[in-house]
Amino acid sequence: MNEFFAVVMAGGRGERFWPASRGTRPKQLLKIFGTSTLLEAALARLRPLVSPERILVITNRNYVAPVRALFPELPPENVVGEPEGRDTAPCVALAAGIVGSRAGRGAVMLVVPADPLIRDDEAFAGDVRTGCRLAAERPGRMVTIGVEPEFPSTAYGYIECGAALDAGNRTFQVRRFREKPDAAAAAAFVAAGGFLWNCGMFFWRVDTIMAELERHAPALARFAAAAERHWATPGWEDFLERNFPACPRISIDYAVLEHGSDIVVLRAGFDWDDVGNWTSLRGHFPADSNGNVLVGSCELLECGDCVVFNPQPGHTLCAIGVNNLVMVHTPDATLICPAERTGEIKNLLSRLAGDPERKKLI
């Protein structure tokens, strides 16, 4: 099989997990769901499939040092720091340039986000092998993984499946990508069947993604080709600093995938949770008799359906007579909000950013 590289996109801040997540401690470096960070779990899933020399972590330059410290087995140059966040398409273009420089444009790239929660590593490995084979066997083909919807979510994009490509109905030609829908459209998608959640995992040969960028996002194609030329040269860091911020801010879905004609989707055989905000804890920690999920020292009286996260030693969080709240305590900030309004945390952080005294909290 073609040489295979795994690219882990780990540049996001995970603001919806504030106040645990901060500018220097993003969601993917938090130990919320166990003794490992989400990024540690992501790399552990990849290690049986690919050697550390062929794993790239594309992150924010502010996170390069902690990521390298967390994974000393990765060559230091394999942890690449973006000068600023520009969404997933520039990240993919950067990675394509690096992989193309190192292994040639026939190499296959797996691109995965750093922060979903996946428990079934064996099933994930099987799907990765299938996705790599599908991407390698036909130049021009792009492959993605879709997750069977559990409910009509408005938080995810959807993939509409076309013709089945195997007898087991695991792989399908993609008919089209659908943006994050409103509630009515999401319900219609789930009721109709044939729609999968877009979990942001992709496979392609370097020459395939380079050609697609050239066709649909030529500015990013030029950046990827320049990155290919500059990688491992003395001027690499200067090149990245000067050119990456000039890339258009756009997702790979909008830049390429919504325009592609030869895309295959593999129905995931593994469990998957985007763990997008604090209410995600409900699916991964046991609830008490009143539906409360409690992490850390907490005492609730006549409360129901709350999510409480208080890992601080020597501090007990108490509440009386409240329902459906998220309560998170850290040494210097405490969040309390209705569970259905966690999506407004970004608005709160914008207000904190405008106060010089409290800007340090973000």
Q: Mean pLDDT score, rounded?
A: 95
Number of helices: 10
Record field, number of beta strands: 15
The main β sheet shows up as: 5 strands, mixed, barrel
Structural class designation: alpha/beta
Helix proportion: 25-40%
Radius of gyration equals: 21 Å
Order of helical and strand elements:
EHEHEHEHEEEHEHHHHEEEEEEEH
Percent strand equals 15-25%
Low-confidence stretches: none
Largest sheet strand order: 5-8-6-7-9
Q: How does the overall form come out from the CA principal axes? A: globular
What do you see in this structure?
- By secondary structure, this protein is an alpha/beta fold.
- Helix content is 29%, strand content 24%.
- It contains ten helices and 15 strands.
- Strands 5-8-6-7-9 form a five-stranded mixed barrel. A four-stranded mixed sheet has the order 10-12-14-15, with no helix packed on it. Strands 11-13 form a two-stranded parallel ribbon.
- The protein is globular and about 60 Å long.
- It starts with a strand and ends in a 9-residue tail after the last helix.
